[in-house]
Amino acid sequence: MGECHAEDVDVAGSSPACGTTGAKDIMYLTREEERILDGEEGEGPAKAMKLLVALGEINDAEKLIPIVSAQIAGVSYKTMGDAGLEFIEDFSKKARVLVKSTLNPAGMDLLDNAFEDPEFREKQLRLVDAYNRMGIETSCTCTPYIVGNRPQRGDHLAWSESSAVSFANSVLGARTNREGGPSALMAAIIGKTPYYGLHLKENRVPEVVYNVEDGIPPALLGYHVGNQVGRRIPLFRTMKIDEDGMKSLGAAMAATGAVALYHVEGVTPEADDFSIKGVEKVDVTREDIRELKERLTFDKKPEAIVIGCPHLSSPELERIADYLDQRKPKGGPELRVYTSRWVKEHSLQAVEIIARYGKVIADTCMVVSPLEGIYDVVATDSGKAVEYLPKLAGQKVIYADLESLLELVA
Ligand code: F3S
Q1: Which one, of 342, 32, 55, 42, lies nearest residue 185 by Cα?
Q2: Which of 163, 184, 196, 375 could make an SS bond with 59 (beta carbons 3.0 to 4.6 A apart)?
């Protein structure tokens, strides 16, 4: 970057990134950003800046913009393996984050001293420690917006967990692209991200309008729509939905499609900012969803019930506890309920009740922890888990609503 000369500097004190002379690909860097790219702040920040510049140029970003927070996936030793552990341990010696940064779920409950695989446990703890040395909070959840990393409308972010990205963009009106774990980490180290995609208001326009019949569960609606809509931005009409419902809806659409932003008329903050005149309209009926539900159900007994994808909120834990309390355990499938450490510690009464019937597990989830080898068939109420458990945890998966699942337990 020493070759970037003063004549390249524009009136705002920015200059084109080195190696980018094509009119289309130029991304402007401030003098400070150039200094970092040149290695004057050390090897770690230089590597981080290099990745962000490459990402920005691929996507025709004009510049970097400051971010308020980062949310970093790539935490489970199950998915990272030894190569990922080695990279993060090495990188942790070279860089620290500049903005509030939180982690996605790890591969196990970090307080589970009796975890069945001691080598996995040792490596998982090393991975989380390495992130922590960079200044990243080890809250290990896909619901950071419940546990103290809750952005405001208009905040720019670099988040990587797809369900959290969807929630931040859609429900909170913050702005983030669907980052990979590495790009979110590098953005946290620089405190900036390339300015393209969903950071720009003109890319947040609804592209398909869904008229939704009453009484459709958000998880199944999300599963159904995600399959149809792909990367486009849906706007839902005629729909009553609360925050937990939107958490579930967005997670499912991000899994079966690649939806990173949706709007709900009269509910989400940006839904009324755009005209939907001339936009394609699609009806979703209870009949559509009944057929889908039949496809996701089969006649086999689950060995475990897995609930909490995304991680449960306190009201959701309390709902489960209310159902179970005073009922007789049936000795059926094992109940596993996943939430964040923070919610677990702030819902002690509900946790105490649920623990009489099954396990309340924090810091991890059914997809990123090693379920394979323990079960073959599980049941869940999550549209995202239905999609991912067969692919990432080798499970046969049955979908059922929460009440039906709990009826198998007590
Ligand atoms: Fe969260 Fe794991 Fe589901 S990260 S959204 S509980 S797959």
Answers
A1: 55
A2: 196
* pTM check: above 0.85: yes
From residue 45, how far is each of 86, 97, 98, 395 by CA, in Å? Answer: 18, 9, 11, 40
61 and 28 Cβ atoms separated by less than 8 Å:
no
Which residue has the CA at smallest separation from atom 3 of ligand 1?
A: 309
User: Which of 160, 163, 173, 130 minimizes the C-alpha distance to 69?
Assistant: 160
Residue 108, helix vs strand vs coil: coil
User: Which residue's alpha carbon is nearest to atom 4 within ligand 1?
Assistant: 142
pLDDT digits (tens, 9 = 90+) for 362-371: 999 999 999 9
Specify whether the CB–CB gap between 175 and 154 falls below 8 A.
yes
Q: Ligand 1: which of 384, 387, 389 to mutate, judged by most atoms within 8 Å of the beta carbon?
A: 384
Nearest Cα to 337, choosing from 124, 109, 168? 109
Q: State whether the beta carbon of 107 lies less than 6 angstroms from ligand 1.
A: no
Tell me the average pLDDT of the chain: 93
The per-residue pLDDT for range 376-393, each reduced to its tens digit, is 999 999 999 999 999 999
